[in-house]
Design goal:
mainly alpha, Cyclin A, domain 1, 2 domains, 13 helices, about 0% strand, globular
Length: about 290
């Protein structure tokens, strides 16, 4: 079980001030780094939380007669492999999946076009986030010739027009960066956080949670798995804006997904985090949890 948290949740100014007074200054180490924008970073994340639901996908499966949750999971598993193969930035994966789910929230897609949507969304996200995005030829080859260069480019226009070129969105990754910093994470904790977050990406039901809540829950669950005490600190509560109790539903869902990861036929995320350079966190077993 997870560590029991206080059920009563309050966000009164006095409570917020009390939590803030106990929180660590996580930005002091970056005070001389102009790129860290320490003067504005708290305001930036306050804004991100205010607007995150504007770019949050709807629960759309009931409007997709030819697509189901399993097909979405297979697509994302494949995209995780493609993303890893091209060594793209982490931001690219999260943005690509946001584009896919937002598009599916708006448009009905035939089952045979789902991979086309996925590979094109990855192309768009990589153009936005990476210095050297993959070439269209390379992506077309990865589909075993199922889609031509022209089809990918036409789909690119369709996605961008449907989403009105709205690409600057606070994805879960935006919050993961801030919240892992607030957790003062070592390499093992940080990799476990990202492992849990990426496992969550492959499961449709996690779309119901806001990106910031998913990110905070990944941090909380990782700290429970790795016996960090306390599991949820005043610093984390201040910088995430969530109490441990508010994270419980999502954290339990991530823990359940994790418990099935090693048995799943869709193993891209498990394989990725089984590597030594990622602290082999995928091998941390159910029995080693501490909730």
């Amino acid at each position: 079980m997870f560590v029991k948290e206080e059920k009563k949740v309050t966000h009164s100014s006095s409570v917020v001030k009390a939590v803030a007074s106990k929180a660590l200054d996580i930005d002091s180490i970056d005070k001389d780094n102009d790129l860290a924008a320490v003067e504005y970073v708290e305001d930036m994340y306050t804004f991100y939380k205010q607007v995150e639901n504007e770019s949050k996908p709807l629960m759309y499966m009931q409007t997709q007669p030819e697509i189901n949750e399993k097909m979405r999971s297979i697509l994302i598993d494949w995209l995780v492999d493609v993303h890893f193969m091209f060594d793209l930035s982490p931001e690219t994966l999260y943005l690509a999946l946001n584009l896919i789910d937002r598009f599916l929230s708006l448009k009905t897609v035939q089952g045979g076009q789902l991979q086309l949507l996925g590979v094109t969304a990855l192309l768009i996200a990589s153009k936005y986030e990476d210095m050297w995005p993959p070439q269209v030829d390379d992506l077309a080859c990865l589909t075993d010739g199922t889609y031509s260069n022209k089809q990918i480019l036409v789909m690119e226009e369709t996605i961008l027009a449907s989403l009105e070129w709205h690409l600057t969105v606070p994805t879960q990754y935006v919050f993961l960066v801030r919240f892992t910093k607030a957790a003062v994470s070592d390499a093992e904790v940080e990799n476990m956080v990202h492992y849990l977050a990426e496992l969550g990406l492959t499961h449709y039901e996690t779309l119901k949670f806001p990106p910031s809540l998913l990110a905070a829950s990944a941090v909380y669950t990782a700290r429970c798995f790795l016996h960090k005490v306390p599991a949820w600190t005043d610093t984390l509560r201040f910088h995430t804006g969530y109490s441990g109790f508010e994270l419980m539903e999502c954290a339990k869902r991530l823990a359940f997904i994790h418990s099935r990861a090693g048995e799943s036929k869709l193993g891209a995320v498990f394989k990725k985090y089984s590597k030594s350079e990622r602290c082999a966190v995928a091998f941390i077993t159910e029995e080693s949890r501490h909730f």
